[in-house]
Amino acid sequence: MLREKYDPDNIFDDIPSLTVRMNPELDALDGVLDDDELFRMIHNDLAQRYPQTLTAGRYSTPVEVILRLLVVKHLYNWSYAQTELQVADSLTLRQFCRVYWHEIPDHTTLCRWANLIQPATLQVFNDRVLAIALRAKVTRGRKLRMDAMVVETNIHHPTDSSLLADSVRVLGRTLRRAKDVLSDTTDLPKQLFRNRTRSARHAAREIGQAARRGQRHTKTAYRRLVQAARATVRQVQQVVSALEQHAQDAGLQLIETFATFVPRAEQVIDQTVRRVFNGEHVPAAEKIVSIFEPHTQIIRRGKASKPTEFGHKVWLGEIDGGLISQYQILDGNPTDGAQWTPTLQRHREQFGHPPWLASADRGVHSTSNETDAADLGVTRTVLPKPGRKSDSRQAYERQSWFRRGRRFHVGIEGRISVVRRKHGLDRCRNKGQVGFERWVGWGLIANNLTVTGRAMAH
Predict the structure, then answer these.
(1) Kindly report the CA angle at 365 between 362 and 371, in degrees rounded to 5?
(2) How far, in Å, CA of 315 to CA of 334, rounded?
(3) What's the whole-model pTM score?
(4) I need a surface site. Which of 157, 259, 439, 448 has the fewest CB within 10 A?
(5) Using CA atoms, how far apart are residues 408 and 145, in angstroms rounded to an integer?
(6) Is residue 323 domain-resident?
(7) Residue 3 in domain
């Protein structure tokens, strides 16, 4: 049965020597998280765990505790296990999380609860945090600066050889489990369950060593690797037929695993053959760069330090006060200029008025974007023009208000650095597309809560 709160425990008042006052920022956040709307958003998602979660079963960890544990996790960029350990060891965090002297939920339990919270809920959650900050005069929503960042997925550097080896390894170990399931029901030959992981690994290692020596890839090694992958896929197709006929109940999970990874393995084989043997340039949109995180996209933004990134591009809108007012996970690598007008429109919907000043990088500049900003009611539009400028344009951008706007815009680079280092948005540790969206949402909410708590405490 879903439980909402523990009964208040006054032991902290009864034993002054053990009472530890929360720091002012955490104390301010304690009040923010008491907001009933924030509580109800999380409550509604957690209530979907089982059909009778609200009415039957043993008592759960309270919703209030789950919410605050997840906030603490992302405030300090801890893992679930670290969150369990740190809260259990700290009187201050026990008090903040409202867990009192009750047992801290196991990190695996907390992870299961966290996976019930939907990305759309986190978008609304962030809007509510902004409303609280606006009411507390942390921000007025009069200035808006925009920029993009890339959050990488948790994958190794992709090469065709490593992806083929991964495919053979995953399908091979699943074939071994299928052999145990089918051993008493069919007389399939042992060769059908052969695990080709070792030969695939040897071929991939040979290709890698040749690349490190500066040599061209050896087509012979690639041919062996592709043959191993194709043979494994053919084995799987026959084994799946046997599982469907003779071991439907026991083999259901194995069939689902095969159905998940076989199409990905076939895509890796196809892109390898096209690139290595046919000499084609395979477009980024047609490539798969991880069989475990297939939603990962190839992002090239022309940065010298990291020319190619693997993850998703995230568009941010930051308002005065240091709050991320909106974020969007983009599909592929669209131009930044296409995000300008929708971001301004979304700002007007959130705050009821356009920003007095709006800024972005030179990649966003266009005459149409400046016109759109004026039509939407933006007084100061700070979009530096790239390339050669006319005398009139140079004079325009040398105005004092434009320069102040450029100095204001630089702050979003610092904000991106903070959320990457402090709140874990350099690399997503969740799995899957939904997990990625959830990770980004919590990271940006953690930033907004930190900024709000700091401002309210001073």
Answers:
(1) 150
(2) 10
(3) 0.92
(4) 157
(5) 8
(6) yes
(7) no
